[in-house]
Design a protein that fits this description.
Distance between the termini: 55 Å
Number of domains: 1
Radius of gyration: 20 Å
Oligomer: single chain
Order of helices and strands: HHEHEHEHEH
Strand order of the largest sheet: 1-2-3-4
Strand content: 5-15%
Number of strands: 4
Structural class: alpha/beta
CATH architecture: Alpha-Beta Barrel
CATH class: Alpha Beta
Largest sheet: 4 strands, parallel
Helix content: 25-40%
Shape: globular
CATH topology: TIM Barrel
């Protein structure tokens, strides 16, 4: 037992050796080198939203401060966007921000499609529509799932998130 421990210990990364600055660029030195050579470089990850609509009315939501007369993205455009992102070298797409993407009818399909074309897919959501059938469908294709819980009590959550208790 004692002979195996030193080998195992050598494989463990010391957290003090890591720089956790909110950027993942250090994981992609080939992108840095390409940029330094003057090449066009695709984003590593992209945060997108399929809609600005939402089934909540959060008091802190930045999307409520934006004005837009734009149209909603279609299923076809969303799926093509994911294919194009993968083709140019984007590593991951996060469906977060600007609206609640889970309310579009092609939400689960877009997550499956993004994973199929080689993207790491992540989501941020209020979770309202993520019932068991939806979760069983999308979880195998997600790199992460973030829920927004902006209230510690039923009443606080209701007030902050703009929904009934």
């Amino acid at each position: 037992m004692s002979a195996a421990l030193p080998e195992l210990h050598e494989q463990i990364i010391n957290p003090n050796d890591l720089l956790l600055d909110g950027s993942k660029i250090g994981w992609y030195p080939e992108r840095i080198a390409a940029w330094q050579r003057g090449e066009k470089v695709a984003p590593i990850t992209m945060d997108v939203a399929w809609t600005r609509k939402c089934n909540y009315s959060c008091s802190f939501c930045y999307a409520q401060m934006q004005a837009s007369n734009g149209k909603e993205i279609t299923r076809e455009i969303a799926l093509q966007f994911l294919e194009d992102a993968a083709e140019i070298g984007v590593k991951g797409v996060s469906l977060i921000s600007d609206g609640e993407s889970s309310i579009v009818p092609f939400y689960a399909e877009s997550i499956e499609h993004g994973a199929k074309v080689g993207l790491k897919m992540g989501i941020g959501t209020n979770g309202k529509v993520l019932k068991k059938p939806m979760l069983e469908r999308i979880l195998p294709h997600l790199s992460y799932l973030r829920f927004n819980f902006s209230g510690g009590t039923r009443e606080g959550y209701s007030r902050i998130m703009g929904v009934k208790p």
